[in-house]
Amino acid sequence: MAQIDLLQKVANAIKTAKHTTAFSGAGISVESGIPPFRGHDGLWSKYDPTVLDLNYFHAKPKEAWAVIRELFYDFFGKAQPNAAHNVLARMEKEGLLQAVITQNIDNLHQEAGSRIVYEFHGTAQTLVCTKTRKRYPASSVDLSVIPPLSETGAVLKPDFIFFGETIPQLAFKKSVEEAEKADVFIIIGTTGEVMPASMIPQKAKLNGATIVEINTEPSLFTRSITNVFLKGKATEVMSELEKLLFAETG
Length: 250
Ligand code: NAD
Prior knowledge:
Distance between the termini: 26 Å
Radius of gyration: 19 Å
Strand order of the largest sheet: 3-2-1-7-8-9
Oligomer: single chain
Bound molecules: nicotinamide-adenine-dinucleotide
């Protein structure tokens, strides 16, 4: 089937669905200038992933924070939402999307205007005290001095999960619920290689959702659970979809 026919099919499915959920990965933010972690040009080809190892972080907080600050605050902080984030926000506003589950920690869905966002891997927007678990907005903390410390003198850690940490409980619970409720489940820009996040689309499939996938490359989902694969960049595919979804309203 031609891509335009596939897009029309997806637009029709979304318009008639009771519940549509989106599930995003690093690929949705690539066109905002944030590369994925893995792959040829991935961030881990330039940075050492050890900085996100909890033992290393506790043993060498200053060294870990030097990289964390550069990568997740100086670099990610400059990124702006792109058309794909914007279309999802518009869909929610117009009642065509009930929730976004994201593996990303870059806050770009919220900056685009999405309100129901479950951050499966946590967020860079808050810092958590490693002693009391009290949370602080990252914007209120002076990162010119590293490692940043809480009032108790304990090291502050970004509130996203490091290797080996468990998924935030509420985000996990809500993600499962949103997957199970979905008639249409849209996967955007993710390899499906990161566990347990990759279980979430499987749950949607098991509950009978139509799985739509948008990616520049096939992923682990493409052959296993995807019903409609829309090959292409997230911004381009989502902009085409937007035209079909809002044809009458302009
Ligand atoms: P991932 O599993 O999130 O996969 C990235 C996917 O995006 C790949 O399948 C790739 O083909 C696809 N892709 C690349 N450019 C695209 C585009 N323009 N449009 C659509 N799809 C595109 O990969 P990862 O980076 O190894 O992720 C590991 C974990 O780290 C994930 O949880 C991820 O969300 C997180 N991460 C988050 C950010 C962020 O917050 N922006 C950045 C890097 C990694």
